[in-house]
Amino acid sequence: MSVSDDCLINTQSNVTVAWIVAALVIVINGYLLLNFFSSEVSGLMFTSIVSAFTGAYLAFIIYLVSRGFLTFDTP
Predict the structure, then answer these.
(1) Spatial contact of 44 and 9, defined as CB atoms under 8 Å apart
(2) DSSP letter at 75?
(3) How many domains in the chain?
(4) How far apart are CA 16 and CA 52, in angstroms?
(5) Would you give the DSSP letter of residue 2?
(6) Count of Cβ atoms closer than 10 Å to residue 48 Cβ
(7) Residue 44 confidence (pLDDT)
(8) How many CB atoms neighbour CB 69 within 10 A?
(9) Half-sphere exposure of 41 (CA within 13 A, CB side)
């Protein structure tokens, strides 16, 4: 049994670990965004611009997560 065969044996556990790590990164990113909003953003125009970019970023993250679930659901 080669090293590559050994990695393929635990495919489901590898996917689970990858999603746990991804979720941790997403949570930390969300905390940093919230911290930035609460301390740095002031003014209507700047708040609107930052909110638009943050909304686009969150939509992109949701898109990537949904694509990830679709990709790993197929055998």
Answers:
(1) no
(2) -
(3) 1
(4) 32
(5) -
(6) 11
(7) 86
(8) 10
(9) 18
Q: Give residue-wise pLDDT tens across range 44-75.
A: 888 888 888 888 988 988 888 888 766 665 55
In total, the chain counts a number of residues equal to 75
Distance of CA 51 to the CA centre of its chain: 18
Higher pLDDT, 5 or 36: 36
If one compares 15 and 10, the residue with the highest pLDDT of the two is 15
- What's the gap between Cα 63 and its chain centre? 9
pTM of the model: 0.58
DSSP track, 3-68: HHHHHHHTHHHHHHHHHHHHHHHHHHHHHHHHHHHHHH--SHHHHHHHHHHHHHHHHHHHHHHHHH
Q: What is the DSSP letter of 70?
A: H
In one-letter notation, the amino acid at residue 16 is T
